[in-house]
Each structure stands twice: as C-alpha cells, then as structure tokens.
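Contributing new records

If you add data, match the layout below exactly. Sequence lines come first and carry their own label; structure lines follow with theirs. Keep one chain per record. Anything else will be rejected by the validation script.
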Amino acid sequence: MKLKTRLIIAFFVILFVPFLMFAVAFFGFSKYQMRMIEQSYGVPMSLESLSDSMQVIGKSTEQIFNKLKVQAKEDPDQFLDRDYLDQVNETIADKPSYLLVRKDDKLYYSGTDEDVTKLFAELPAFREFSSSSDGGSYIGKDVRAFVKQLDVEFSDGSEGSIFVISSAKMMVVQTKHLLLNLIASIVIIMFFTAMLLTIWIYRGVNTPLKKLSEATERIKNEDFDFELNETGKDEISELCRDFEEMRKKLKMQAEEKETFDRQSKELISNISHDLKTPITAVKGYVEGIMDGVADTPEKMDRYIRTIYVKANDMDRLINELTFYSKIDTNRIPYNFNRLNVAEYFDDCADDVGLDLRGRDIQFSYINTVDPETLVIADAEQMTRVINNIIGNSVKYMDKKEKRVELRVRDAGDFIQVEIEDNGKGIPTRELVNVFDRFYRTDASRNSAQGGSGIGLSIVKKIIEDHGGRIWANSKLGEGTTMCFVLRKYQEVPVK
C-alpha cells in the first residue's frame, strides 16, 4: 500500500473512528447509569430524561406527592399526626427522599437523622412556591436537594408546609460518573486509535527502510552478495526494488572490474613474457654483431633478418595492446565505405598468399561471390580481421605440410568468409571461449607460440561492429575453420 494511501486512511480513521467508538461508549455508559438511577429512584429512564435530572427526581415522588395533596384537601390536620408522617416517610425513604413539616416557621417534623438546619433555612416561605406533582425547586447552595412544597392551613388557624425532600447527591454522583467515564473513554479511544495508526504506519515504513539501511551498509562495505526482496506496492518498496536493481548492476560492475583487473594482469604478464623472448633474441644477435661473431656477409644478413623478425613480433604485440585499449573504451576508429567484395578479397588474398608462401605455407583462395557484390565495411579493420585470424592459425600449426585456405561465398543477403587451416584444432568444449578476451587454449601456453590472447576478441568486436557474426568450427588434430558473415549492400530505389 502506498504511503499516500496509508496517510489518507489514517486521516479518515482519526476523523471517524473515535466518534463512532465514543458514540458506542456513550450509549453503553448511559445505559449503565440509567439502570443505576432506576434502581436508586425507581423511575423508568430514557436518554431524554437523563439530560434533565431534576425531572427524574421529581417523578420519583410524584405518586406520593399526589396522595399528600389529596390528604391536604380532605384533612390537613392529619399532617400533625407523627405516626402518619412516619408512615409516609417510610414510604418514600427508598427514593431516597424524606418529609419535613413546617408549622408557623418552625420545624415540626423531620424524616431524617441528618442535620437539616441549613436546608430548613433555605426552604421557600409559605405560599412562596407551589409545586406540581412532578415539579419542584432545587436547593444547591449548601445542600443539594430537590424540594416539593405543599402549603396547608391547619384547623387551629396556623400555617404549615409539607416538604418532600429528595436528595440530589445520588443523581449528581451518577452524572459525574457518566461524565468521567465519557472523558476517560475519549482519552482511551484517542490514545489507542493514535497508537494503532502510528504502529501501522511505522511498520509499513520502517520495515522496508530497515532493509534498505542494512543493504546500504553492506554495499558500503562492498558486499553485494544479498538480495533485497520487497513485494509491497508503496513508494518505499518501489525504492527498495530500484535499489535492488542498482545492487545487481553494482555487483555486475564489480565482477566485471574484478575480471578486467585479472585479465589485465594476465595481459601484462603475457605480453611481458612474449616480449622477453624476442628482446633476449635481439640482444643476443646484436651482441654477436658487436663481438664480431657475424664475420661473414651471410651471417650478418641472417642476424639482421632475425633482428627484424623479432622487432616485428614486438611491434605486433604493442599494436595489439594499443588496439585493445581502444576496444575497451569503444574508441575504435572506423571509416565505413562501399567495398567490392571480389576486388577487396582478391587484393587481400594476394598479400596474404605472398606472406604465407614465404613461410612455406600452402595458401589457396576461392571466391564464388558475384563480381558486382558490395558490402559496407572499413577496409583497414577488415584487413586486421583477416590478418589476426590467419596469424592465429599459423601460430598453432603443427603439421609438416602447413595449409591455409580462404573462401568467400554467397549466403543469400550475406557474404560468408571462411578461413580454414590444418593446425592442431581446438577442443569442442573450448570453442565457445576462443573469442573471449585473454583466452588461450592449453596448447598455446608456451613461449614459442606466444600471443596476448586478445587477437580473436578484437576480431569479434570488429565483425559485430560491422553488423556481422563470427563463429568457429574445429576438429581436434585436423584443423579449424573461422567463419564470419557480412550483410550485402543493396541500393534502395527512390520513388
């Protein structure tokens, strides 16, 4: 889940859930308090009546007060009978309520054991207030009580008031408890809602962030051998997946760098080793000339020719190293032009044939391509390809009669060039590696054959840059055929 979605959900949860839960809590606590008030005052409760506590208290004594009003009309002197008053007081004692009777501004009767001095002083005067059956007045200064007043005139001419006093303490306590419970529920609901949302958002964010932090620390220590698996759909999970892609690329680059460093060391070692042999030979022949060993024109000529051949070997190795650096940085200079296949390979065959025959190597050339066939290619680089392949073939020939054959034939939209030799051959398991940089077969690891191991990798790079493809076929002990194809050039008609 996206972080934005989480925050939106959290917003609406904070907005609505506490209100919903508060409504449930209010309903529950209200039902509980109403049940307690019903037990205390014996009056059916509702949410409407809960909001008017004095009405509830008034209704609790409504029936007995109506009886008192009837009695006041029939026989007011009955209120001077203490036994009658005790009886009435006992009836309302469970409300909780009690009677007070005032006669000529003096307390005549009290239905409670409590000190009613303060209450008596606050009672309404005679005829000051007339209560209905469910109405009354609230005294809330020093004494919290609900008072119903019934004024009567006794037979002796004195004035009196009968008061039904209902304690409001219980109602106040119940209301206070309700408010406290509601406040506590609000606090608890808000706290747990905020805590759960915080945990939910924190886990959704912290878990991938923790993985990301650990991954960053491992990468900082150049440790790429791990996987950052995060399947979430939020922004941080997407960041983790991007980080994982970066890790893979860094790992690949690190592996490539390690391979490159290893191969570079091998290249330097190979070239150093291969240069050492011709340099030693050159030094030896030069010292021979200086010491007068070449004392005949024939010896002198042979020494000079040998020095020349060894110098060419060193020059070739240096050129390979220089060209390799251009390959590695993709800075090979190409000059593409339309080449006539027949003319180009005829000239190439003449040059190669002359060189090979000079080394007692049989050379044959076959070209079956249409004389008008053209390709787009760099002549200089293609010559490098031919020379590198043939040079590699010559290097590993072990037959007494050495043979190289160059064939050019038509292959549909392509021309196919094949260079076959009768050398040692390459094991089948090693054919896939012959075009790799610095690769040498086991048979090539000797100073007599030499080689940097990059000749065929250069060939592959040039052919692929021409849009072609190269491969090798070989039989161990019989020879090897190097094949590559180039696309023909075709004029596009203009409409």
